[in-house]
Amino acid sequence: MGLDGHDRGLKVVARTLRDAGCEVIYLGLRQSAATIVAAAIDEDADAIGISMHNGGHLTLAPRMVDAVVEAELDTPVIVGGIIPDVDRPTLTDAGVAAILSPGSSDTDVIVAVTEAVRAAGST
Fold it and tell me: Which helix (H) or strand (E) holds 100?
């Protein structure tokens, strides 16, 4: 994930969540679903956030959800990035817990993550 090298928004989201009291583990760019799941297990993550700006969201986001399910985790997957509205139902049907777009406010980010974690029963 993070194949596009465009991570400014991701860093802003990470800082927003840290300022809201969340522990954020940033793995950096170009991580595989397996690497992300391993980190989620190691860090006992409540949620997984992935950034999609490369148009691969319909392939990579479901792959991330599948890896989480395969690992028998209840960890919600939250996708942020340039996601066309027409693709949102497909991602939701694939199990993506929340979708954040460029321009989402700090409150939008915090609410989306909090509700996704609550719905998954991770905390």
Answer: strand 98-100
CB-side exposure of 7: number of CA atoms within 13 Å? 15
DSSP structure class, residue 29: S
The stretches in the chain having pLDDT less than 70 are: 2-6, 122-123
Closest CA to 112 of 96, 100, 95: 100
Give residue 79's Cα distance to chain centre.
Answer: 4
Contact call for residues 78 and 96 (beta carbons, < 8 A): yes
pLDDT of residue 91: 97
pTM (whole model) above 0.90:
yes
